[in-house]
Write a structure and sequence with these properties.
- The structure is a homodimer of 431-residue chains.
- The first copy, chain A, has helices spanning 54-62, 110-115, 117-120, 124-146, 186-196, 232-253, 255-261, 266-271, 281-290, 303-310, 365-374, 383-387, 403-411; strands spanning 15-27, 31-37, 42-48, 68-77, 85-96, 150-151, 157-158, 170-172, 178-181, 198-206, 219-228, 277-280, 317-320, 343-348, 353-360, 396-402.
- With 431 residues, chain A is of the alpha+beta class.
- The first copy, chain A, has 2 domains: 5-96, Beta Barrel (OB fold (Dihydrolipoamide Acetyltransferase, E2P)); 117-419, Bira Bifunctional Protein, Domain 2 (BirA Bifunctional Protein, domain 2), CATH 3.30.930.
- The first copy, chain A, has an 8-stranded mixed beta sheet, with helices on both faces.
- In chain A, a hairpin with a 4-residue loop joins β2 and β3.
- In chain A, α4 (124-146) packs antiparallel against α7 (255-261) and α4 (124-146) crosses α13.
- The first copy, chain A, is elongated.
């Protein structure tokens, strides 16, 4: 059995074997410093020519960047750096000596890096982002289970669209005509709450948007949650709890990753102890106008507006109760103002943009039918969804969170394409 | 705040409110027994006409099956059934009185139930299967993390096929031609191990198979795991550990669900303490021939063969080292016999069929290139995959587990379509 680098701290004074890749090598000709990674972490192995058999030293000299290797040696504490451990090499064997590695230390253009995504993933920053993504996903699963949500996967092949038809990917489907790739599992988990009470899905969704911004992918991961007997205010509390649980778990588990990314986490820590801010949509518009935005009532917020609104905020900001006219048909109309719906967008701090969109859902059969007709949607396509209001309708609410947007915010990654292992955009289908 | 039914055991003697659906009602005209479910469990509420205001009793009389309701009352222990709790009703309000529910107690045909899948999910058995599925998925995440695997989601849109092209769903993809929906994320996570060491993906995969058996879906969930420096024997140990971890967690958390399904769990318990069985492929063929099968060397096992081989087994059975000729190009050739590969299929007990397929992967550049050419695959399409053998190739292994197959086995469900919330088959795209 070999030892994972993350466990070296428990092995000081022992002789262990680690297996991994040569991340970097410095050699004076008499002493070589091998920076090795094995996925669990990074460690330095120190090889002294005079204390090694000649053929071992020669083997070390031949090792190129990215070569795979097995190194045996005694674990010591780094003489200067607290919490860093080294290996004093007594054996070292290359597993495969790598060809000249195409990704060097100098800057590469994004297209080159994306063409080599299968290799670029190995860079320390990409490694850190992958691990933060895993932590975010785990935090989501854990928090929702702690709140009595059950995971119920939604289908990808759907016969109709949840929100409009212009950005759908069509797929020929046997004798049944065309299937569309799901843009959201929400309608499906609304059905499942009458079975399991509270549920969530967590999978890829698809948008055929011809957009090339830093925030758009054609394929991205969403978590949709839905809960019976939860109304607007409680819905927001669950969302706030989730975002805090994600940040808390990343702060607990990802210090090494944050260092690799040179990510200052002061703002993340500060956020945990305070309640999130709230604006009603019309308050937000007024505030934005004061701050110099020319946004008008009835318009959606742009990226700049989201930035303006959260610029001086220590905490994410809910924007609640938007005009019915610009929101989806399934959102419940505010009993206090029939032009508004009981929804929210949650805007992150540090320029994160929109993290969550949520709403209480229309639970009245007749009102929902009216909205479906008003939007010109096919009544037949939504028959099953209307059924949910015929057989034991309940007040219920839910929300969706975009995984890559959260990962981008927490990791501080510049572009969303770094926040998913193999990004797909309008121009990118490989590797 | 209302109380979840699962928490009633902690509230004996207290007055609480539960919110849910009327699963069933029996009434003598003087006393009514309301079976209520809220997703977390089932409870009986007892309403006595004489002790309630007249309008409350009248409200109860109007409640139909599947009506949503809120009931307040004192929690008592069931007079006869250990571990069952009741509510002595003092308040009861219908939230929405359901229209006549289309799913009755009498037998419905599968097509009718599938057309009403959005409602059928509410039945006790479907509820139990949904919750077992959630538990299986949680167990997979937990076990893999405990073994140092990091979740790295694979892409759904792929430019080429992992295993053949006949069963792919094509999707028109902007100016880039055609994308295919992924059948396996394996090749992608093989790239990611050089970053994170051990990783897994967990998402939907797609097969355009014109098959209508009890075991086929066009869209199903797979978990693929991959680990650097893990060879054939250790790969099997990880698979065995995973299956046992899943069964263990279900036995710990799903007793209520097993009762609802009338699932005898003796065989599941028995399996936990014993090592899994192993046959080499050629031993398995000989044994099958002895048992009466006419399978020939070089053929794949059919369902009947899998059943025969595990009929008298207390534990799942590994079939190892299959003929190279019937297995995928990426499997590593057995150094002891160049006609065989270092792979395994894991066959479940109780007629579960194949649960896992795994293999050590070919890590030699030239041998892999030769296999790709021999299979007539496009060298260019696999260039990035070949790169993984050029830059620090390592011995590595992995496997894939089909979530629905595992859920079907553990829940004892008859048909795989019950093991996913909204199944998609060749004939089924709705609801």
């Amino acid at each position: 059995m070999h030892t994972f680098i993350k466990d070296l701290s428990n092995k000081v004074g022992e002789e262990v074997t680690i297996k991994g890749w040569l991340n970097n090598k410095r050699s004076s000709g008499k002493i070589a410093f091998l920076e090795i990674r094995d996925g669990s972490g990074f460690a330095q192995a120190v090889a002294v020519k005079d204390s090694l058999p000649a053929e071992v030293w020669q083997g070390i000299e031949k090792l190129t960047q990215e070569s795979s290797l097995e190194v045996t040696g005694k674990v010591t504490k780094h003489p200067k750096q607290e919490g860093v451990f080294e290996l004093q090499v007594c054996k070292c064997a290359g597993v495969q000596v790598a060809s000249e590695y195409p990704i060097s230390k100098k800057d590469h253009g994004p297209e080159f890096l994306m063409d080599n995504r299968h290799l670029w993933l190995r860079s320390k920053k990409q490694w850190a982002i992958l691990r933060i993504r895993d932590t975010v996903e785990t935090a989501i699963n854990e928090y929702l289970h702690s709140q009595n949500f059950i995971r119920t996967d939604s289908p990808i092949f759907t016969p109709n669209a949840c929100e409009g038809t212009t950005t759908l990917f069509p797929v020929p489907y046997f004798d049944l005509g065309t299937a569309y790739l799901s843009q959201s599992g929400q309608l499906y988990i609304e059905a499942a709450i009458a079975s399991v009470g509270r549920c969530y899905d967590f999978g890829p969704v698809f948008r055929a948007e011809k957009s090339t911004t830093k925030r758009h992918l054609t394929e991205f991961w969403m978590m949709d949650a839905e809960a019976a007997f939860v109304e607007h205010d409680e819905n927001l509390k669950i969302q706030e709890g989730l975002v805090k649980a994600i940040v808390k778990k990343c702060l607990e588990n990802c210090q090494q990753e944050f260092s690799a990314l040179e990510r200052d986490t002061v703002a993340l820590k500060k956020m945990l102890d305070k309640p999130f801010s709230h604006y009603f949509y019309d308050e937000a518009i007024k505030k934005l106008n004061k701050l110099g935005s020319d946004i008008k009532y009835g318009e959606d917020l742009g990226n700049d507006d989201e930035g303006l609104l959260t610029k001086d905020s220590d905490v994410p900001v809910f924007i609640e109760k938007w005009p019915k006219s610009i929101k989806s048909f399934y959102m419940k109309i505010d009993p206090e103002n029939s032009d508004r719906v009981l929804n929210d967008d949650l805007i992150g701090i540090e320029g994160a943009g929109e993290l969550i969109g949520g709403s209480q859902r229309e639970d009245d059969y007749n009102l929902l039918l009216e909205r479906i007709r008003h939007e010109g949607l096919s009544e037949k396509d939504y028959e099953w969804y209307l059924d949910l209001r015929k057989y034991g309708s309940v007040p219920h609410s839910g929300f969706g969170i975009g995984v890559e947007r959260v990962v981008r915010w927490i990791s501080g990654a510049e572009h969303i394409r770094e926040c998913i292992p193999f990004p797909r955009t309008i121009n990118r289908l490989r590797p």
